[in-house]
Amino acid sequence: MRLSRRARYALCGIFDLAYNGAGEPVRVRIIGERQGIPFRFLEQIFQDLRRAGLVVGKRGPGGGYVLTRSPEKMSLREVIEAIEGPLATMNDSSADSWRDSVHRPDFLWGDLSNRIAKSLGEIAVSDICREAVRHSVQRDLPDGMDYQI
Questions:
Q1: How many folded domains does the chain comprise?
Q2: Is residue 89 part of a domain?
């Protein structure tokens, strides 16, 4: 399975909020700098994440985005679906219906999509944060904050 750049950037943005934000608002510009993502592109992605109810924006000094719930309760599937739409339709074989499919294993695509969606639904954002700690990914916590996920 290949994820679009938008989906990968959305995962990076959510990861950054969970890993570096410590529950405090983080500006998209700072996330973009840390993750190497163009600000304008990331800003559009965060609007989709906000519409999906995964993040909420806070305005004013000290503003930015925060997760709407704990990283333990947010799955990678939710993040990807906020950007790409429902995973079950990503590999819809009806787009190829003009071809003779008598000899092709078209029964397979729906099952694979369901399995991938199920696996992504079982991986929480907090799992990725734990892996980041295990791989010694550098943290940039707000001043005075230091905790482990």
A1: 1
A2: yes
As a whole number of angstroms, the distance between CA 83 and CA 90 comes to: 12
Can you give the pLDDT at residue 91? 46
pTM (2 decimals)? 0.83
- CATH code at 107? 1.10.10.10
Q: What is the pLDDT of residues 32-69, one digit of tens each?
A: 999 999 999 999 999 999 999 999 999 988 899 999 99
Select from 5, 3, 42 the least CA-distant residue to 26: 42
- Say how many CA atoms lie within 13 Å of 109 toward its Cβ: 14
Grouping H, G, I as helix, E, B as strand and the rest as coil, residue 3 is coil
From residue 104, alpha-carbon distances to 17, 97, 100, 140 in Å are 43, 11, 8, 50
What SS3 class is residue 32?
A: helix
- As a whole number of Å, the CA-based R_g of the chain is 18
Is 92 inside a domain boundary?
Answer: yes
CA distance 76 to 121: 6
